[in-house]
Specification:
homodimer, two-stranded antiparallel ribbon, about 25% helix
Chain lengths: ~260, ~260
C-alpha cells in the first residue's frame, strides 16, 4: 500500500479549468490524487448544496496524469460530500481546492465556491485549503503559483490543522520573482458596490446583469488585501463557527 | 412621509411560501413592507450569487396586503442585492428573512439561503435577522412564531445591531404555550452524516440523491441545538468575518 498522502482535489471553475489542471500537476508530485470537480463552472455558488434535484458523478479522463478523476453535476460542496461519502474508501489526508481564476480575498470568501469546497472538507474533518490567483482570465498564467501551492500544502500535511479551521490562500498576479513571500493575514473588511445593468430582451422583457466593484474598507496592514496589494501571498485561517461570541453577553441585555 | 420603519422581507423557499406570507403579515403590523423574494425555492443555496447569467425581477401581487412585492429569478443573496441597489430608494431599517420551513440551527447556517439573505443585508449595512421554524413541511403551522418574530424584530429596530453581526433565530415546532422563552446561544458544533442514495434512470444512467442526518457533536447547554431541544427559541449572533483570529499566531510559526 502506498504511503503517499491521499489528496482530494476540487474546484469551482469546472474540471477542465487550467487552474485545476495546474493544481493537479503539483499534487501529483506530493501524493495520490483523486479529483472530484464540477462538470461546469460554479463560480459564486457560495456554500450551495443540491437537495431538490439529482446528481450525476462519473469517472473521466482529461489528461495523461496518474490521478483518478470524477466529473460531478453538482456544486463544489456536493463534490466534496460525494468524494468523502461515495468515492474514496478512506478519509483523504488533505483537500485542496482551486486554483481559482480570480480573487477570494476579503469578503469574497463568503461567495466563493472554491472556499466552500475547502470548508466542506473541513466540516468532514479533512485538513483543507483553497487557492486562488488574482487573475479572472481562463488563460491566466498559473506558473508563479506552483512553488507557493507546494509549500503550503506540505506545511498542512506536516503541521495538520485544528478541527474547524481551513486556509484561504490568495496569490497576487505577479511573476514568481516579483512575489515577496507568504503572509498570514486576517480577512479585510470590505464589500461590493453592486450595480445591476438593466437590459431589454428581444422579446421586450427587462432583465439584469449583476456587476459591481469591490471596495476595501480596511486600512489595516495585517489584512489579506494589504498583503496582496504589496506583493505577498495571503494566508487567512478561516473558521465555520460563525457565532459572534463577543456579542452574546450584549444580546442577553435585550428585552427578549 | 411615513415614520414607520422600512422593512425588507426576503426568504429562500420562494415568494408563495406560507412561512414568508406569515412573516409579511407580522411585518405589516410594524412598518412599511417591501418583499423581494425568489420566484422558486432556493433551499440549500448557501451564499450563492448569480454572476454568469441574467436575472429577472418583476412586481407581483400575491395577496391583498399593503406590502409591495417583487419576484426575482435569483438566489436569496441576489434578492437582497437587487432590493438595496435597484428597488428601494432608501436603505431599509431592517431586513427580515424567512420564516424558513426547517431548521437553520448549528452548521445549517452555512448552507442556508434564508441566512444568506440576512448576511447579505448585514454586508450592505442593514440590520438583519433570519427566522426558521423547525418544521420542513410546506403546510407547517407558523402561528406560534408570530409573537417571537414580532418581539425580536422590534428589539432589533430599537437596539440596532453593530456592523458585521446578524441574528439567526430558530423556533421549535411546538404550540405557543409550550415554548419556554427566548435564549441567546452559540452555534452548536455538529455536522451532517451524508448518504448518497444511488438510483438508475430509465435510460440506464446512475444518479444520486443527497440525503443525510444531522449529528450534534456538542454537549454544551449554551448552544442553539440545546435551546431548541429544551423548548426555547434560539437566537445566535452571526458574523461574516470568518477569520480564525486566534490561529494567526500559530500559523506564523509555520515554515512558510
Amino acid at each position: 500500500m502506498s504511503k503517499k498522502p491521499l489528496i482530494l482535489v476540487c474546484n469551482d471553475d469546472g474540471i477542465t479549468a487550467p487552474g485545476l489542471r495546474m493544481l493537479i500537476s503539483v499534487m501529483n508530485e506530493i501524493g495520490d490524487v483523486v479529483v472530484v470537480a464540477p462538470d461546469n463552472p460554479q463560480s459564486g455558488m457560495g456554500h450551495a448544496i443540491t437537495i431538490n434535484t439529482t446528481l450525476k458523478c462519473n469517472p473521466v479522463t482529461i489528461d495523461e496524469g496518474p490521478q483518478l478523476e470524477y466529473s460531478c453535476s453538482g456544486t463544489p460542496a456536493d463534490c466534496v460530500k460525494m468524494a468523502v461519502s461515495e468515492i474514496l474508501n478512506k478519509k483523504p489526508d488533505i483537500c485542496v481546492s482551486g486554483i481559482n481564476h480570480g480573487s477570494n480575498a476579503s469578503l469574497n470568501v463568503i461567495y466563493s465556491g472554491t472556499m466552500s469546497a475547502a470548508v466542506e472538507a473541513g466540516i468532514e474533518g479533512v485538513p483543507a485549503v483553497g487557492f486562488s490567483l488574482l487573475n479572472y482570465k481562463w488563460d491566466a498564467n498559473f506558473d508563479a503559483c506552483r512553488g507557493f501551492v507546494k509549500t503550503i500544502t506540505k506545511n498542512i500535511l506536516k503541521q495538520k490543522l485544528p478541527e474547524g479551521i481551513v486556509l484561504n490562500v490568495n496569490i497576487p498576479n505577479l511573476k514568481e520573482e516579483e512575489i515577496k513571500g507568504i503572509k498570514v493575514c486576517r480577512q479585510a473588511h470590505g464589500n461590493w458596490k453592486e450595480k445591476f445593468e438593466k437590459r431589454v430582451s428581444p422579446q421586450g422583457e427587462d432583465y439584469y446583469w449583476l456587476t459591481g466593484k469591490f471596495v476595501n474598507l480596511d486600512q489595516g496592514e495585517d489584512t489579506d488585501i494589504w498583503a496582496l496589494e504589496n506583493g505577498y501571498v495571503s494566508v487567512v485561517p478561516v473558521k465555520f463557527d460563525m457565532t459572534a461570541h463577543h456579542y452574546i453577553q450584549k444580546l442577553n441585555n435585550w428585552d427578549l
